[in-house]
Amino acid sequence: MFVYTVKASRLKFFALLICSVAILLTLAAVIPRPENLGNVAVVNYSYDNITCNEDRVDFLEGFGYTVDETPLEVEKVKVPETFDSVYEKYNDIQRAQGLNLKRCSGKTVTRYTYKVTNHNAPDGKDVLANILVYNERIVGGDICCVGEGGFIHGFECSDEKSEEK
Length: 165
Hints:
The protein is an alpha+beta fold. It has one domain (34-164). 28% of the residues lie in helices and 22% in strands. It is built from 4 helices and 6 strands. Strands 1-2-3-4-5-6 form a 6-stranded antiparallel β-sheet. The longest helix is centred in the first third of the chain and has 21 residues, at 10-30. It starts with 9 loop residues before the first helix and ends with a strand.
């Protein structure tokens, strides 16, 4: 058995210590904070490879919605760095369907709005489907009806998920 000892000088020791602290600080800056990730539901839908209008329409049809093929609106939307109570509530809907808008904080996403033609709406109002896309991936979205008696919920509708506006 061979034993080899090394006598480290104080300078080498402190240099190694400083390098270790620098690496730890870099890792702490790169790793996302847990509060920015939040709890996300487990889902069986694919939100990836959304490259064209047909992909978005097929995605909505996968949830049982029939929509007009042409979006009513296509708009660039910047997700804020910090969420107010409205964004927090909206993100709760997203997390319930396996998404999390906090991952897109500060980024510009594209919102596609479609008219849903097979969904019951109070007082004959239009029901809309909103899809938020970033880098060919759906990062958020909802089904909503605006105005008095309106609602907003995730892509899967159930009475307990539906939120009054």
